[in-house]
UniProtKB/TrEMBL annotation:
GO terms for molecular function: G protein-coupled receptor activity; olfactory receptor activity. Keywords: Cell membrane, G-protein coupled receptor, Membrane, Olfaction, Receptor, Sensory transduction, Transducer, Transmembrane, Transmembrane helix. This is Olfactory receptor. Residues 42-291 form the G-protein coupled receptors family 1 profile domain. It is found in: Cell membrane.
């Protein structure tokens, strides 16, 4: 395209749900506001309880606390702007705001992939080497594992965001999404993006596949160890410690894979918006609910915390 058709944008317009009637947008605002508040409260409660209750100072809950921090950040990146758009119909976002949103979306997304793999490794050590678990997963080791989970988000987000926003953009500034995701912003570029697209595809595959393979490897060994347990009660006890994590992993990977790895012919903008909502809005809300409802230790800790806060006697062990 001729250089004369390029333009330097100062802002973008997020199309999000502008095609819907105002009444539907008002209803969506209420629904997403409730989900947003539940997400913040649920994950904040997990963080507070795992810090306050001595029974939850094990490595498993240390990583769960990291996951809750991550989910809060992931939610703060996209949902407040979406709520503002639905409420005030202000669909604009500055050039810097769009780049910042994309940067932290990549950062938290990549970090979650690796943190879920680290949590799977923690379950593997706990079940396959229970006697050595306290030594192998000591405070120093789990801090290093958590840092190693968060770190990959920095280079991935920095390279991809900086590279994409260094391209010239066409006259249009309409992003057909409810946040600044890479594919819809890339469609506005007036330059050859072949190398960037190859990098993005390879990077996404590596970011998804490496943690996924680590998770599969951990759970293959966990399954083999559980099958060797003679009693049904012992099998159920060990499996129950993994069930919450397996459900969270399934929700995250299925929704994100359907969003980014579907054939373009089946990937309509509206369909992608719905799938994006599942892992940017719904999954962060479900994670603390899953860990609370399916984990007796968390439920008992929540009960103890509430009883202490209210000054009541606690009957839970």
């Amino acid at each position: 395209m001729a250089a004369g058709n390029w333009t330097r944008l100062s802002e973008f317009i997020l199309m999000s749900f502008t095609s819907l009637p105002t009444e539907i947008q008002s209803l969506l605002f209420l629904v997403f506001l409730i989900i947003y508040l539940v997400t913040l409260m649920g994950n904040s409660l997990i963080i507070l309880v795992t810090l306050a209750d001595p029974m939850l100072h094990s490595p498993m809950y240390f990583f769960l606390r990291n996951l809750s921090f991550l989910e809060i950040g992931f939610n703060l990146v996209t949902v407040p702007k979406m709520l503002r758009t639905l409420l005030s119909q202000d669909t604009t976002i500055s050039f810097l705001g769009c780049a910042t949103q994309m940067y932290f979306f990549f950062f938290f997304g990549v970090a979650e992939c690796f943190l879920l793999a680290t949590m799977a490794y923690d379950r593997y050590v706990a079940i396959c080497s229970p006697l050595h678990y306290p030594v192998l997963m000591n405070q120093r080791t789990r801090t290093k594992l958590a840092a190693a989970s968060w770190f990959p988000g920095f280079p991935v987000a920095t390279v991809q965001t900086t590279w994409l926003f260094s391209f010239p953009f066409c006259a249009t500034n309409k992003v057909n999404h409810f946040f600044c995701d890479s594919p819809p912003v890339l469609r506005l570029v007036c330059a050859d993006t072949a190398r960037f697209e190859i990098y993005a595809i390879v990077g996404t595959i590596l970011v998804v596949m490496i943690p996924c393979l680590l998770i599969l490897s951990s759970y293959t060994r966990i399954a083999a160890a559980i099958l060797k347990i003679p009693s049904a009660k012992g099998k159920h006890k060990d499996f129950s410690t993994c069930s919450s994590h397996l459900l969270v992993v399934s929700l995250f990977y299925v929704s994100s894979s359907l969003t980014y790895f579907r054939p373009k012919s089946n990937n309509s903008p509206e369909g992608k918006k719905l799938l994006s909502l599942s892992y940017t809005v719904v999954t962060p809300m479900l994670n603390p609910i899953i860990y609370s409802l399916r984990n007796n230790e968390v439920k008992n800790a929540l009960s103890r915390t509430f009883h202490r806060a209210l000054g009541l006697k606690n009957h839970n062990p």
